[in-house]
User: Which sequence fits this backbone?
């Protein structure tokens, strides 16, 4: 019986002690800020002053080695490069000289002044060349062989020259381009006394001034 009472008394004492501790903690305000530290009883906390190290002694200024500037070199003279010579222009060869106008003779039968078939082809070619020359003038000479009188051959040579002129005009050659004359038998091309030589003398010859 006494042991139970003693045990109960001990429990009551312990409860009072715990209650007292709780009441004491509630009455004391703990704050971590600088303003609330005044309500905390006891001496204020010591604030450690920041230690400032004394300034280090200044080092004496070091002498800077003087660097002498390098001697200036005289400016180099500018060498102007001459442009390369241009190649000579290509030489254009002159145009070829026009070929001289060549007109073939027209031949006649003995004692005739009519245009033969072979002479027609010759005169047609001559007419094309004359029209291409744009107004080139020419002289038609009438010739005969040695047979017959001088007067007769002069008339026959003139008729041969007239027949050729008329044929050329019919082919488109202007009459103002053409002049005629007759030499008869006075200027033979060949001087032999043969039929072949006489045939070469019976002709209408073209002369270009």
Assistant:
């Amino acid at each position: 019986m006494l042991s139970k009472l003693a045990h109960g008394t001990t429990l009551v004492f312990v409860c009072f002690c715990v209650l007292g501790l709780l009441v004491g903690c509630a009455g004391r305000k703990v704050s971590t800020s600088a303003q609330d530290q005044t309500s905390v009883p006891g001496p204020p906390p010591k604030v450690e002053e920041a230690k400032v190290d004394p300034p280090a002694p200044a080092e004496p200024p070091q002498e800077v080695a003087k660097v002498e500037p390098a001697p200036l070199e005289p400016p180099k003279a500018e060498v102007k490069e001459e442009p390369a010579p241009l190649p000579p222009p290509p030489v254009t060869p002159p145009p070829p000289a026009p070929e001289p106008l060549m007109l073939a003779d027209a031949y006649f039968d003995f004692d005739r002044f009519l245009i033969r078939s072979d002479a027609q082809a010759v005169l047609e070619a001559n007419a094309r060349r004359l029209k291409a020359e744009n107004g080139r003038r020419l002289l038609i000479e009438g010739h005969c062989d040695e047979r017959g009188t001088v007067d007769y051959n002069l008339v026959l040579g003139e008729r041969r020259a007239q027949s050729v002129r008329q044929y050329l005009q019919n082919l488109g050659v202007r009459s103002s381009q053409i002049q005629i004359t007759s030499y008869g038998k006075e200027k033979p091309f060949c001087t032999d006394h043969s039929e072949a030589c006489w045939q070469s003398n019976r002709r209408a010859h073209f002369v270009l001034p």
In short: The longest strand covers residues 178-184.
